Amino acid sequence: MDNSTRIALLPGDGVGPEVMDEVRPCLAWAEARGRRLVLLDLPHGADHCLATGETLSEAVFLELRDRCDAILFGAVGDPRLPDGRHAEQILLRLRQDLELTVNFRPCRPVVVGSDPTIDIEVFRENTEGPYCLQGTTEPGRAVDFAIHTEPAVRRLLEAAFQRAAARGHSLTLAHKANVLKHGHGLWMRVFGDLLALYPQVVAKALHADALLCALVQDPRAFGLIAADNYLGDLISDLTAAYNGGMGVAPSLSWAPHHPFRCNALAEPVHGSAPDIAGQGLANPVGMFLSTALLFRHLAWEAEALALEDAVAGALKAGAATRDLGGQLSTKAMGEAVRARLS
Ligand code: NAD
Ligand code: IPM
Ligand code: MN
After folding, report:
1. Going by CA atoms, what residue is nearest to atom 23 of ligand 1?
2. Are 164 and 170 within 8 A, CB to CB?
3. Virtual CA dihedral for 279, 281, 283, 287, nearest 10 degrees?
4. Staple partner for 122: which of 212, 217, 236, 272, CB 3.0–4.6 Å?
């Protein structure tokens, strides 16, 4: 039987293909170290949608779900498709229909000038909340529904409690149960259940508004932060700011209950950055660090550490793209990182 790991590459739009090009050689590097890999390059994104009318066909979705182990994703979003339907039907669909409940967004500063004592991990629920995309627009009235289900909330919080217990870190739940009595009320109930099961974890729930103020004032007081899809999206962009901003932050999504063969989607936290796309200005570090998270998920720990060390070493030596105050192009930054991989 073929025991290769099958990874689908979806570069997407804007800076997505630019940062994806920088990590492709890392996959070849892993192969040269003996990892057996089969890569599937997919064109889906705005260009493909405009040329063919297709976002993600059922056949491609099933190929990803049942015949791939993981997806490496760039970014989606294009001003020519302002309703964002391809982002919904590609990225949000993959997160939801692969049931990738956990979106892990760590912030461990490595950028020069950042505070290396910060160590925050955001556990964002990745499939529900307002991302159910159900609502209506009527004259003078607009409605967006948010759905929260106990299985997904429990899966996300269990993963967060397990990680907090394993790392000996505190866990904070971000919520607005004082207003969102139904949805966040459910989160509070499940959080309470798990609190009793993990007495070794120092855990508390904070109103998200107060949490954000405390997070800006004293980031070192935080360990893990668990949040629903919407709050987690906002909180993880804030924590990205502690480590150089949007170009640096990585993420990995997975399904703890393992419903399908494909059980990992690695993607930088940033979007397609149309303001800098096509100019060689994008920072590939978020994409490199997401690839390292994917390597770790595949239990390729040595490769994950080597890639993280290569990024940290390049930054420490002064390699930086414009967003980090440097002069390097996307490609030159990619080369600076890869030159440190042995
Ligand atoms: P964005 O993350 O694309 O850009 C925000 C800011 O960060 C911009 O100033 C941009 O230049 C900068 N930036 C982003 N990535 C960078 C990188 N690698 N290096 C240097 N600077 C970088 O967010 P936005 O402008 O709000 O959204 C643009 C499009 O991307 C929208 O269509 C949005 O829906 C989409 N989006 C997609 C994803 C995703 O695919 N996961 C995530 C966020 C936004
Ligand atoms: C992200 C993005 C997406 C989200 C958008 C593009 C739908 O902001 O991956 O963080 O809101 O999840
Ligand atoms: Mn976001």
Report:
1. 271
2. yes
3. 0
4. 236
Residue having the nearest C-alpha atom to atom 37 of ligand 1: 271
Cα angle vertex 83, ends 78, 86, to 5°? Answer: 60
Which residue type, as a one-letter code, is found at position 52? T
Q: Measured between alpha carbons, how far is 214 from 334 in angstroms, rounded to an integer?
A: 35
CATH of 115-243, one of 3.10.180.10, 3.40.718.10, 2.60.120.10, 3.90.226.10: 3.40.718.10
C-beta 233 within 6 A of ligand 2: yes
Class for the domain spanning 1-100+252-342: alpha beta
Q: Which ligand is nearest to the CA of 14?
A: 1
What atom of ligand 2 comes closest to residue 126's alpha carbon? 12
Whether residue 1 has pLDDT greater than 80: no
Q: Tokens representing 257?
A: 């209950």
Share of the chain above pLDDT 70, in %: 100
Per-residue exposure over 146-175, b if at least 16 CB sit within 10 Å of its own CB, e if not = bebeeebbbbbbbbbbebbbeeebebbbbb
Q: How far is the CA of 56 from the centre of ligand 1 (A)?
A: 21
Residue 250 is which amino acid? P
Atom of ligand 2 nearest to the CA of 236: 10
pLDDT mean across residues, the chain: 97
